[in-house]
Amino acid sequence: MKIIEIHGLNRHFQSGDERFHALKEIDLEVEKGECVILRGVSGSGKTTLLSIVAGLDHPSSGEILVEGERLAKLPDRHLSRFRGRHIGMIFQHYNLMEHLSARDNVAVPLIPQGLKMPELKEKVDRAMEAANIAHKAEMSAGRLSGGEKQRVAIARALAADPEIILCDEPTANLDRANARRFLEILAKLHAMGKTILIATHDPIFEELPFEARVVEMENGTIVAGSKSGSR
Ligand SMILES: Nc1ncnc2c1ncn2[C@@H]1O[C@H](COP(=O)(O)OP(=O)(O)O)[C@@H](O)[C@H]1O
Ligand SMILES: [Mg+2]
After folding, report:
1. Ligand 1 centroid distance, CA of 26 (Å)
2. What CATH number has the domain bearing residue 82?
């Protein structure tokens, strides 16, 4: 089953008289359970593409379907609910609330779901176990190390049990030991059947312990890997 389908997608940015063509005629299909590495130098359009998949930005033209939903057709409030249920995001800057405990950071995005306390706690605990950070649950986020902060961000992304995990330069602020730990967590998510998209130019992803598809981006176009099986 195709979980993400992108056809003829363009994104222009207008600033003053300048019109910048950041994504050009992008075609990309991702199968459920696949891991896709979006690789390309800085400025090639990786973050712009991930933002569009997350429904945080919209294409100027073309089509994007996520889990069969045409994102462009969803009104904003439905879009944020859709994102909350189906998409987990892990970004380079972890965006944690530093004065809250690790546990509360993970719980915050679940609040709109209006769960009963035991169910909320179970979801938070499960996500923290999966991200190997359960032992720091009560510590305030501001006191955690960089690697630990990222694991809290991973747990937060997993809490609602989304099908799709988007990672933007996830290892950029990690030392190599923590970057390798991140690859192990990805392997676990992959084994759980999650669909994973990672934008990165970190060569450490060549050490990924499972098969992933590399999609090469250059100047806003995909130059290789746009279809499953086309490695
Ligand atoms: N909001 C914006 N307004 C104008 N230009 C932008 C905007 N967002 C991104 N760009 C431009 O689009 C190009 C691709 O950016 P980005 O997707 O961030 O690339 P990458 O993540 O691969 O480094 C860059 O040249 C960037 O300057
Ligand atoms: Mg980027």
Report:
1. 15
2. 3.40.50.300
Residue 209 structure tokens: 């312990």
Structure tokens at 152: 């809290």
Q: How far is CA 61 from CA 26, 64, 113, in A?
A: 10, 10, 33
pLDDT in tens, 98-153: 999 999 999 998 888 888 999 999 999 999 998 889 999 999 999 999 889 999 99
Q: Which domain holds residue 94?
A: 34-60+74-224
Mean pLDDT of the chain: 91
Which ligand 1 atom is the nearest neighbour of the CA of 45?
A: 17
160 C-alpha to ligand 1 centroid (Å): 29
The arithmetic mean of pLDDT across residues 54-58, rounded, is 92
Q: Which of 18, 37, 48 to mutate to test the pocket of ligand 1 (most atoms within 8 A of CB)?
A: 48
Cβ proximity of 7 and 28 under 8 Å: no
Atom 26 (ligand 1) nearest CA: 43
What DSSP state is assigned to residue 158? Answer: H
Residues 6+ positions from 92 with CB-CB distance below 8 Å: 168, 169, 170, 172, 173
Q: Which atom of ligand 1 is nearest to the CA of 11?
A: 12
Could you tell me if residue 140 is inside a domain?
yes
220: left (phi over 0), alpha (psi -120 to 50) or beta: left
Task: Please check whether residue 212 lies inside any domain of the structure.
Answer: yes
Written as six digits, the tokens of 206 are 């060549």
pTM, entire model: 0.90
Token pair of 49, please? 């593409």
